[in-house]
Amino acid sequence: xxxxxxxxxxxxxxxxxxxxxxxxxxxxxxxxxxxxxxxxxxxxxxxxxxxxxxxxxxxxxxxxxxxxxxxxxxxxxxx
Amino acid sequence: xxxxxxxxxxxxxxxxxxxxxxxxxxxxxxxxxxxxxxxxxxxxxxxxxxxxxxxxxxxxxxxxxxxxxxxxxxxxxxxxxxxxxxxxxxxxxxxxxxxxxxxxxxxxxxxxxxxxxxxxxxxxxxxxxxxxxxxxxxxxxxxxxxxxxxxxxxxxxxxxxxxxxxxxxxxxxxxxxxxxxxxxxxx
Lengths: 79, 187
Known about the structure:
The complex is a heterodimer. By secondary structure, chain A is mainly alpha-helical. In chain A, 37% of the residues lie in helices and 8% in strands. Chain B is mostly helical. In chain B, 47% of the residues lie in helices and 11% in strands. The two termini of chain B are 18 Å apart. At the A-B interface, strand 1, helix 1, helix 2 and helix 3 of A face strand 1, helix 1, helix 2, helix 3 and strand 2 of B.
């Protein structure tokens, strides 16, 4: 039976001010794992590539003009 | 689903957001099946528009075939762990230098990270033992450590409640650990 323990790692001998003394985490979707493996985490700007902000603005305006009831949380992104 | 999203995710959109809390990253991943809060909102609006009575597909939908294809194929939650991070690459969630919140870390908490690491490394080495007696003792020690609660784990949860980080860095896959989350809530 093998066990996995949580450990923290940072480069030995490096001052704390240069590297964080603990790990950080990024929550994402399996959709992006192949891309992250290829380009690295942070290597692509997917919101720009997919023109996400632009689409959100158009979709929000469309929904509003159609008189649909929009969740306030979705509206937060537009301001 | 949107009701479950908290104000804690009210970040500027588009950056690479990182948190000291694995649990918080997991919650974000669970609530954002396309990997981004902005995509979650896009998917919500597409669903709202398409569900409207006598709805016709808006003409502008045709200009975004890749985005719509993405929004029709939600993924499963994944947490990525980045072990080596240069402070200079980080901003706090308001876009200021990350040195600010990091300067307030109590020295004894920073020290406890090293202490926890040494304890866990020692137990980990014993877990690798071929001797079942040594291994069983190490399991017992590990359970005791879990019950006691690690200083650093507590500290990191507190820090993650205070701030998260945006990074301008690019982290190659070799420096990352990918963790697929199960479907059930809570990690």
